[in-house]
């Protein structure tokens, strides 16, 4: 292995201090590589005013294996982008978030430090649990609506039944999950080790998914009421469980009092009259029948963020939707913003970033500890530069490539490349705040797609050791499966323990505890160590502690892993995360380990 593989830096406190710098502050930046190298000079390349600036770095530390270079820079920009230029006897190299390159890199892959950006102080130690309100738990007699919506009446389902597909029930089948049910299952969350909840929409709406909001200031009567929700949040927070809500702010439902196409309200809505005070809230093409909507679905009319009064209503005013639920008596801990990639964007209106900047500034000024998370199925990097979201649901940067690797003929090299590419366009501060998931209400459950439970354990090990904040979907911990549609993934949570996979549940408990107790997994650096046909290996490290992870989706394999590039000394002891096995590196800092078929290894070096 050449010296090239030893070149390393990241945004962790091993290489960047302080961790969260303020604008104008001086920052220390470090680079590490093998001592035995052809390097003659190391330069830090920046472009604070658009023109390239090269400053020489100096040696600050040496040992038998490594040499460290450092430099201190005053950071005057909001986003400080940099990369390293290495002059060697072999020619010139560049090192950035993508890795080592001989050709001049694109700026977009530079390392980044965001000033004046601090995620919620509580975030990194959290494990999120997503609850689909109608399907999690029901206590007392369920309240089933009696209205007719789009010609369809609500269907009462028994808890043991399966959800209907859209063409069967039109999302009008209700199981009756409610606030009292959540109260009754707090002990399950605590026993599992969960310390953060993400609720799918809970506001008054006609459908079971509630993404067609009718009233943003009212808890859906099927789920409960405002006062019982306030009590629930207080009880959860007393149990050290944070709460974020689903904010459907790209569009409303057609039954929303502001649009009122369903005529549920006496007050004239935007659909009924151009003189309505809400007409400018929406994007009409030709009033009233032609308007922009979410993906052309006319029951979900799209909001017009060019309208100042709409922005007042959603986030500007003290009594706006976002602030209403962030302040007492509810005091939620943040928002998961639905369809974040679409918010503020419509034909002829593409200047969406100022809207996000304003939203963040207003919310963070008043509620600095709130978590601003965005749903985004594509490339969210434009919203992750410190002036919009704290994080995104990491579908493209984790969920989809991992699921493809485990269920399709997706090459390990392609897996590594996609993970690296999506890490390369945002700062390390954001990477550690990303919401990583294997399952959600919008995709089939991974357990349905996998061929065996051992692969689900492997996937879970991946989830809890990859940089970012791990999140699980209700029922994932007990092996809840489903079908090939998103509707079939929204099964009611079975509460008879005989229906649970108790072995899987115990595995989740142990892994959640392991992650919550590990500062290395919460904030440590990341380096890929091994990429083979069916093997993906990497390390997390911080302050002299290292966790090695090797994932094997294929047949039993013997691995010889060189740990020298991550500064592991010869003959170092490696303890298995579950204390079942103790290993040692050899005299060359290589670890030899046998990984059973469809299994994993996690080792700790201290």
Automatic annotation (TrEMBL):
Q: Which SMART domains match?
A: Aamy (SM00642)
Molecular function terms in GO for this entry? Answer: hydrolase activity, hydrolyzing O-glycosyl compounds
| One biological process term in Gene Ontology | carbohydrate metabolic process
Which keywords does this Swiss-Prot/TrEMBL entry list? Glycosidase, Hydrolase
Residue ranges of every copy of the Glycosyl hydrolase family 13 catalytic domain listed in the record: 130-515
On the tree of life, the source organism's domain of life is Bacteria
PANTHER family documented for this protein = ALPHA-AMYLASE FAMILY MEMBER, MALTODEXTRIN GLUCOSIDASE
Please state what the protein is called.
Alpha-glycosidase
Lineage of the species this protein comes from:
Bacteria, Pseudomonadati, Planctomycetota, Candidatus Uabimicrobiia, Candidatus Uabimicrobiales
